[in-house]
Write a structure and sequence with these properties.
Order of helices and strands: HHH
Largest sheet: none
Number of strands: 0
Number of domains: 1
Helix content: over 70%
Number of helices: 3
Low-confidence stretches: none
Strand content: under 5%
Oligomer: single chain
Shape: globular
Distance between the termini: 40 Å
Mean pLDDT: 84
């Protein structure tokens, strides 16, 4: 993985984590936390979506949407476990 790919990966993770924090109200982890949430969300979505046959497409925008959906799933799970 080149430095450009790593930078794009981090930027997509940051944007996805930030968007997920806006969608799931009450959650904000700062810049580094949002990057981690976005990256973990992308991993969750990358694992879950092929299992259910869901595909968004390719490109940066599709990657952001994909990672955001996964990050929202992650934040909802965190919210559920924090209440329990």
């Amino acid at each position: 993985m080149g430095i450009e790919s790593l930078l794009i990966f981090i930027i997509i993770g940051a944007v996805a984590g930030w968007l997920a924090g806006l969608i799931v109200s009450g959650f904000g982890f700062g810049l580094l936390g949002n990057i981690v949430v976005g990256i973990v969300g992308a991993l969750i979505a990358g694992w879950l979506f092929p299992m259910i046959g869901f595909s968004i497409g390719g490109g940066v925008l599709a990657s952001i949407i994909h990672a955001t959906i996964g990050a929202v799933i992650l934040l909802v799970l965190i919210k559920v476990f924090k209440r329990a």
